[in-house]
């Protein structure tokens, strides 16, 4: 959660007062949000769902992905990107990321096998994937592109909104995301038939509630409908998002300008695929080694990308264990249709990613950071880098106190999931 205030309280109170808590035929908030957010993204359809995890699965189900199919996922993403593939009955195949912390297009090209049907491009930590390269490879090799824009809400790639560039986009509005309703998610597509299937996946009774005959054949979906509270709060959050992203981009660019001038320090900002359009929720610093990254974070407490505890494939227990479903007969890892899919994982299978992740530091920005706080962050980055690279001793370094309020913001951002 970045910014939340009286406007959200008022919006929720209005829903309670109206007693219109159900979205179909009673309330109007969800429908209003779906229309507004689709226009914001520049897509024809947007459908709210209960979570980003289910939005991803609904996107895959809608495109007919399932048993017999491999879906490429990056080695660094929240576990749901991979488990959502399993929930659709398909098999996730793990692919290296590069220094941008997003899927490496060269590794993606090499990873495509005879059973591969799709790739999930995850816009991790608010930065954009290299969408031009990913789309070129996907079109050339006949893959579907599913954008996981759960961490990329409000951001873009070369002027187009994240989640609107591939064949389908999935979003999260959980507590840690750029726009939040506490929980929530949704799917964006330009394709009418796919949108019908997405709606059926989210709510098998969608056609009944809306009174619209769906184009697609109905099927048993899971049930991930949201209440009017979700729509109401997101309508307010949508009014805030552009201002928040602009403030974070100003902060990120200011810090990057200052770091560029400190080129004698021996570390570098990670490459960005679309600095003008992305969310800028973090500054990424690439250190020369895991040891220097650890020393940096000892001086200036921040998170190392490889040490968040759950964003790297080595922490995806269910995937590594082959526990693809609750019921053994529904486990994609043991389905005969998946026999020819690649299902072997090992902890060191993406060693290149692990090396990059263990030396990349994530420094969060915040829309409410003051100029003074940003100056302190810049000071701390330079000082911590000097300590980490042995130019100043830990005891000589004078770090600036970020203050209690800032610490609270940091704690919350560290949890970004
Ligand atoms: C990259 C990514 N994908 C998927 C998800 C799943 O979203 P949710 O937590 O709303 O299910 C998250 C969020 O936690 C995420 O960060």
Question: Mind describing the biggest β-sheet?
Answer: 7 strands, mixed
Strand order of the largest sheet: 1-9-8-5-4-2-3
Q: Please state the overall shape, judged from the principal axes of the Cα atoms.
A: globular
Q: Strand share of the residues?
A: 5-15%
Provide the list of bound ligands, each named once. Answer: pyridoxal-5'-phosphate
Mean pLDDT: 93
Q: How many DSSP H or I helices?
A: 14
* Number of extended strands: 13
* Helix and strand element order: HHEHEHEHEHEEEEEHHHEEHEHHEHH
Structural class: alpha/beta
Give the helix proportion (percent range).
Answer: 25-40%
What Rg is obtained from the alpha carbons, in whole angstroms?
22 Å
**Unreliable parts:** 404-412
Distance between the termini: 11 Å
Task: Explain what this protein looks like in three dimensions.
- With 417 residues, this protein is of the alpha/beta class.
- Helices cover 40% and strands 13% of the residues.
- The strands form 3 sheets. A 7-stranded mixed β-sheet has the order 1-9-8-5-4-2-3, sandwiched between helices. A 4-stranded antiparallel β-sheet has the order 10-11-13-12. Strands 6-7 form a two-stranded antiparallel sheet.
- The longest helix is centred in the middle third of the chain and has 34 residues, at 228-261.
- The radius of gyration is 22 Å and the shape is globular.
- Mean pLDDT is 93; it is low at 404-412.
- It binds pyridoxal-5'-phosphate.
